[in-house]
Amino acid sequence: MHIHKYEKIWLFFGIGSLFVFLTIIGVSAFAQGNQPPSCLTTIDPEKVDETPPFNKPGLVKTGDNEYQLNIVASAFAYTPNQIEIPKGAKVTINVTTKDVIHGFEMAGTNVNMMVEPGYVNSFTKTFNKTGQYTIVCNEYCGAGHHMMTAKVKVVNKQ
Amino acid sequence: MAIPQLQNTKPKVKMTKESPSLKGTLASVFLLGFFLMFTWISIYFLFLDRL
Amino acid sequence: MNETMKVDRRDAKLAMAHIYVAFIALALGGFAGLLQVLVRSGKFTLPANISYYTILTTHGVLLGLVLTTFFIIGFQFAAMSRTAGTFSNQVRTWGWVGFWMMTIGTAMTAFFILIGEASVLFTFYAPLQAHPGFYLGLTLVVVGSWISGFTMFAHYAKWKKANPGKTSPLLTFMSVANMILWLVCTLGVAATVLIQLLPWSLGLIDRINVLVSRTLFWYFGHPLVYFWLLPAYMVWYVVIPKIIGGKIFSDALARLSFILFLFFSIPVGFHHQLLEPGIDPFWKYVQVILTFMVVIPSLMTAFSMFATFEMYGRSKGATGLFGWLRKLPWGDARFFAPFVGMLFFIPAGAGGLVNASHQLNQVVHNTIWVTGHFHLTLATTVVLTFFGAAYWLIPHLTGRVMTKTMNRLAIVQTVVWAIGMCFMSGSMHFAGLLGAPRRSAFSTYGNSPQALEWIPYQIAQAIGGTILFIGIILVLVIVTNLAFFAPKGETEFPVGEVAETAERTPLVFENWKLWIGITVALILIAYTIPFIDMIQNAPPGSKGYKLW
């Protein structure tokens, strides 16, 4: 099949760019660990309240400057919904749901996960700046979906 | 009428030159390509900034 | 030539029936859209306890599923009758069976949405559980579309038999390719509805595997957008060259791009599920690569379109690098509307690349950026092309002509649409980058400073959405005129011819067994292992919830 010379140039450039993009995100994901949230841990959605760590949701110190933030989503609230994080903390956020699908988005950050019944989702972020973040549910979950929110404050350590 | 004649003869000339002039097309698709790259790279840097 | 120039009157009635339903859906769905942007501006509340989410479900189902599917099937029936000959009585009868099944299904679905029994949005994610009638209605729509698909295949087979060893007409080939795509992808949504959702909503089974259901939905959900896009590409590749007075740049490359769409638009559903907990990131990335491959036929299409325009302009004596742009028929709405659609596909494609880029999806997932994105792809590129097609298709089918006044109104309509969409989609994109979520009623999230920042953008969306609603009124005026009031006469169904410089089309393109074989192979590669993993490592299933 005959292809015009300029079209060959264009496709070479275009397809080449696609592979450059794929390489950049591939290296970032597989070599530097910037994978999208894919926790792969399962949980019985009807026994969330009895299953650790979600039986005691909240911020837990796990190491030097390392924390776990365990959050339970349900229609239409996050537990807990007021969170204080010391500045500089490396926080692994674990979140699961007791009922339907929810979203978990810390607006203006890369923390953005789907929360599905039966699964724990997880993402790790280091909070280097003080300030306030709003967590919003970004997957439709019912009549009160737009009321489902939580606040995170990053504060200076005492 | 001059126009139909033009239409009739032109492709024949092109046939001998093998391919028609598509300089404008090449320029257009490259502009498009650079726009795609610009957008993608902007969001990539936004992602890095938010890491 | 075996081609008939005019769509037979009886076939025209079948095509028009689909188009009527499509534009009724546009009117109702567009009104729902207007209510949404007004609510979200924070300045307006819905009367009589009507839920935002009922309106949102109506909008999504009517415009995303009904307008598109009906217009596409009607358009393809007309295109096949025009290029592959008048339908046999049997084909036409089955076409009507498909139409009525789809229409009854639509009415049923709409009924259960409007009485508030199915505020589950057009993605109907379990474990939100709608009334069984909602799922049953959707099933009828899909099965009806299958019947229409098979009638198109039957008509194509008859043409092949009558014309052995010949390359099929381009529009017929493209319609068949699109219906194969549709059939292969709707198997996924049919599976989740018939095996999971329907029995679960009827109480026959207690629990549902949520991830399997979502995966089957998105196996369908991405090719769905290409099922919308390919008819627009048919207009671009075949009809637009004829309208401007030029030639099709290359028949073979047009067919090649459709085959590539068939291959790569299905095994890519995970790029809608990039932030899900239950899928291994390796398999997400595999599908990200395949998603990037589906960009290639669009890169080819961009080149073909510019080349068609430039070759025509130069044949009219255009000089300089961009002089050919001035030779294009800017005053012809049949060209202008689809052309504006093409322009909007550039930012739409750019946004699409971002969405599909694995971890970059975290920046935009489920923010209103995504809504902005598909209001460029579907609600501008595809829809403006459909409008542009309606401007000759409807008068052709009803035996009327478009008057100069209507043409001018159609130009205005296109401009109104472009302006409205710049406001609405533009502000959606920017608000999305700031984190504003999609699919949410107005909320300040407890007066959060971040959420307050989004409000000016939401007001801009309301302004844009209102302008777009004016655009809908204009197009409805034009369509009504063309269907019932325009002067009687003959309107051409424009079908382009191939440029003399283009090479002959190889017959291999008609080898559907090969193309379907490769399609299935790619699907199996992309889905088999992660799907088995989902079932083997499944958590306890979910009961149904009605939380609205």
* Uncertain ranges of chain C: none
Helical content of chain C (DSSP H or I, runs of 4+): over 70%
- Specify the overall morphology of chain B: rod-shaped
What is the averaged pLDDT score of chain C?
95
Give the termini separation of chain B: 67 Å
Radius of gyration of chain B, whole Å: 21 Å
Radius of gyration of chain C over all CA atoms, rounded: 23 Å
State the major sheet of chain B.
none
Q: From the 3D coordinates, which CATH architecture of chain C would you assign?
A: Up-down Bundle
Look at the helices and sheets of chain B and give the structural class: mainly alpha
Percent of sequence in beta strands of chain C: under 5%
> How many structural units, i.e. domains of chain C?
1
Compute the number of helices of chain C. 15
- Unreliable stretches covering 5 or more consecutive residues of chain B: 1-18
Number of helices of chain B: 2
How far the N terminus sits from the C terminus of chain C, by CA atoms, comes to 59 Å
Question: What does this protein look like?
Answer:
Chain B: Keywords: Membrane, Transmembrane, Transmembrane helix. Chain B: This is Subunit I/II of b(O/a)3-type cytochrome C oxidase. Chain C: InterPro entries: Ba3-like_Oxidase_I (IPR033943), Cyt_c_oxase-like_su1_dom (IPR023616), Cyt_c_oxase-like_su1_sf (IPR036927), Cyt_C_Oxase_1 (IPR000883), Cyt_c_Oxase_su1_BS (IPR023615). Chain C: Pfam families: COX1. Helix content of chain A is 16%, strand content 40%. With 158 residues, chain A is α+β, with helices and mostly antiparallel strands. In chain A, the strands form two sheets. In chain A, strands 1, 2, 3, 4, 6 and 9 form a six-stranded mixed β-sheet that branches. Chain A has a five-stranded mixed β-sheet with strand order 5-11-10-7-8, with no helix packed on it. Chain C is globular, with a radius of gyration of 23 Å. Chain C is mainly α and 548 residues long. Chain C has one domain: Up-down Bundle (Cytochrome C Oxidase, Chain A). At the A-C interface, helix 1, strand 1, strand 7, strand 8 and strand 9 of A face helix 6, helix 7, helix 8, helix 9 and helix 11 of C.
